[in-house]
Amino acid sequence: MKTRWFCLITYTERNIQKEDVELFRRIQYVVNVMxxxxxxxxxxxxxxxxxxxxxxxxASRVYDVEVRHGYFVQGYEHSWLCTKNFNIIDVYPxxxxxxxx
Length: 101
Known about the structure:
By secondary structure, the chain is of the alpha+beta class. Helix content is about 30%, strand content about 15%. It has a domain of about 55 residues. A 3-stranded antiparallel sheet has the order 1-2-3.
């Protein structure tokens, strides 16, 4: 029986604009290779961690995207990017921090 390879198209390939997939890949590469900056300590001596808000705002200055601010779940603020095609790119997945590998 002949295999019908065209059935193996992913959801992303079928439903998300190619330009947004390419944009996601560019942003993903930068986020994966960058070192998180050391911003210093707050007035109480605690280390200031890079937040989703900082990451989203910085990315919006480099890429053709808009920043959206809202909540991940009730009580947890979050920021993400929105493409001109209204797809979401999350540069800082919720609960992700410096412990990434």
